[in-house]
Structure formats: structure tokens, C-alpha cells
Amino acid sequence: MYRDMAILFAFAFVYALVAGRLERTPVAGALVFAAFGLAVGPEVLNWFALDVHARSLRTLAELTLALVLFTDAANADLRVLRISYAIPERLLLIGLPLTILLGTAIAALLFPAFGMTESALLATMLAPTDAALGKAVVVNPSVPARIREGLNVESGLNDGICVPILLVLLALAAEPVDGAGSWELVLHHFAQEIGIGLAVGAGLAAAGVWALRLSADQGWSSATWRQLPAVALAFTTFAAAQALGGSGFIACFAGGVVAGGMARHRERKHELLLSAEGAGDLFGLLTWVLFGAAVIGQALGRLTWEIATYAVLSLTVIRMGPVWLAMAGTDLGGDGKLFLGWFGPRGLASVVFAIIVLDANLPASDVLTATVAWTVILSILAHGLTASPLTEAFARRIGTTQVPVP
């Protein structure tokens, strides 16, 4: 265990020294993390003695997702939904459901051994997007703000929307139900998890922000300790909801939305969330490394034409088709719709979902996680290499004029 810890944190230290330099290249950090994990994992150097079903691996994945959900929701600029709502709202309310439905249908065709639940699980695991893998798009001022913010808000919120869908599908896959009584029991459990999660998340976030305001007004806190509250609040929210029988993920998502909405000033919010974002980056790094060691290593030997086909379709037709339909009726031209559709990278949320599903020991877990692994690998390469050149080409094509979207 201590050898594994030494390797992981030594790698984190070395990467931190060159992170800024690497961020200016097409090489995504996720690619470096996953490749390192594969190299030191059982399939290559065998420096890690990993049990992919170990509880500690799932715990790390859960805490990573909890922190990411909280910070993404808190950081999401919800003013975009009020000022230029068409793009993020359509992506989330039309594009996301259509993506899951289309992904489910194609999975059922390509994997005949899957039931409808497993097909829907795969589609849901690969529905969330990760703006960090397309950073060149969301930070480039040459791209119209409404497109940048639309992709950013979509990425910040779609993983939280997918969580309850994943939870109910996992429950159905683990214990198939038939009959009205069984369905009623599953739905009651699902509603309980959602309800408790929402109540705990909103309640703790409101109380936490109020306490932070009081502390700041009274001058009780110090610069050193102001780095801790956001991380502590996210983990407290997750653990409290889980302990009370709710969904910690829903709680963190709801808590982040409430905390972000209650923030007095955007600059102040950014200052409070900075340490949480740093902790999220570290947890994400560790999760990517362990994903590379525990999942990608096994996935390399499980590549089939069905998995390869689904991975390609997930990044193209399954994503881009629903986005095109979702943007119907707006003033975005064909190039804008294609641009939005292409830049839906799959990243950390899909990785964490895959680890959770792998730990659930479903009959189809290995195929599900292998498909997610190959889709994420392809996404890292394809989106990482195309982000800068396609962004520059798109900016030249449309210029920087921003036409309001109704």
C-alpha cells in the first residue's frame, strides 16, 4: 500500500511541476495520467497490485465525483441560462435525453446479450461531457461567448443530471423487477434517495454559506483556513446524505447549485472554490491513474468490433445527432451545430461511473467498462488533438460577432 502511495503522489508532484507547460500543448492531462496508470499497472510494469473491485478504489471514485459535482455546480454561471438560455438549456433538456435514448438503442443493436437496462446504463455512463478535455474551446475568446458558456454550463450540469438515472438503472440491473409491487418498491427507494439528497444538499449548503458569511463579516477566519470550507462542505454533504439513506451525489450537485447561487460576488466564490478545485484536480489525477492501471489494462485485451464501433458512434452520431436536433430553431448555422456536437469530450464523470459499475459486479460489467474505457481513450486522443485547430478554424469561419440566440 505504501509503495503504491509513494508512486502515486510522486507522480502528482512531478506532474504539478510541468502542468502549465503541458496545458499549452495538445496533450491532455487525462492522457498523461491514464498512460502512467497503464504503465505502472499489472499489464505492463506491475508496480501496482490492484484489485479492481477493492472498496478503496470505489471510495476514491465516489469522493472524486462528489467533489467534481459540487464544484462544477457551484461554478456554473447560471446567469447564462437567463441571459442566453437557448444553447445550454437545449443541450441539457433536449440533447441529453436524446443522447441517452439514441445511445441505448444503438447499444441494444450492437450488444444483443445486453438487456435494455444494460444498454441504458452504457448510454448513461457516456452521456456526460468533460469541458476540461476541450479546454482550448471553452477558454478561447475567439469563440463566441454563448457557445463557450453553453458548453461549459452543459459540462458542469449534465453529470449531475445523469447521476439519478445511473442510480436507478444500477438498482434495476442488480435486482431485476417484475410486477407492480416490485416497481413500486424500486421507485420508492429511488424517490427516497433523490428527496433526501436534495434536502441534505440544499440544507447543508445554505447553512454552510450562511456560516461562511458570518465568519467573514466578523473577521473570525484566517487566510489559511479559508482554503478548507468548500472541500469540507462537499465531503460533509456527500457523507451525510449517504448516511441518511439518500444519494450523496445528488446532495453534492444540489448543494453546489445552492452554494453557487448564494455567493455574493463571483470573485469571492472563485476564491472559496479554488482549493476545492485543486483538491478535485488531485483526486481526478489519482482516479485517472487508477483507471489506467485497473480498467484500461484489462480493456486492451477486450477490444471487439462492437466495442470499437460503439466508441466511434458515441463520439459522433450519438452525440452530434441529438445536438443538431436540439439546436433546430436557433440561428446557429450548420458549422455551429457541428462544432457544438463534436466538442462533447468524455472524461472524468464517465470514468467514475465505470468504476462504480465495475464494482457492482453486474454480469455485463466487464463489457460495459471496456466500452467506456475505449470511448474515453478515443475521446482523449481525438478531442485533445482537434481542440486547438478546429477552434481556430471555427473562429475564422464565423468571426467574433455574437448574434443573440432567442
Q: Can you put this structure into words, describing what you see?
A:
- With 406 residues, the protein is mainly α.
- It has one domain: Up-down Bundle (Na+/H+ antiporter like fold).
- The longest helix has 39 residues.
- The termini are far apart.
- The chain is built from 17 helices and no strands.
- It is a multi-pass membrane protein.
Structural class: mainly alpha
Largest sheet: none
Unreliable runs, pLDDT <50, ≥5 residues?
400-406
Please report which band the strand proportion falls in: under 5%, 5-15%, 15-25%, 25-35%, 35-45% or over 45%. Answer: under 5%
Question: What is the rounded distance between the termini?
Answer: 56 Å
Q: List how many beta strands DSSP finds.
A: 0
Order of helices and strands: HHHHHHHHHHHHHHHHH
The helical percent reads over 70%
Kindly identify the CATH topology: Na+/H+ antiporter like fold
The CATH class is Mainly Alpha
- The CATH architecture can be named as Up-down Bundle
Average pLDDT confidence is: 83
In the residues, how many domains can be counted? Answer: 1
Count of alpha/pi helices = 17
Rg, rounded, reads 21 Å
Any chance you could write out the topology, listing elements then pairs?
Elements: H1 2-22, H2 29-40, H3 55-75, H4 79-83, H5 86-110, H6 116-125, H7 135-138, H8 145-174, H9 180-218, H10 229-243, H11 248-262, H12 266-299, H13 305-315, H14 317-326, H15 334-342, H16 348-359, H17 365-398
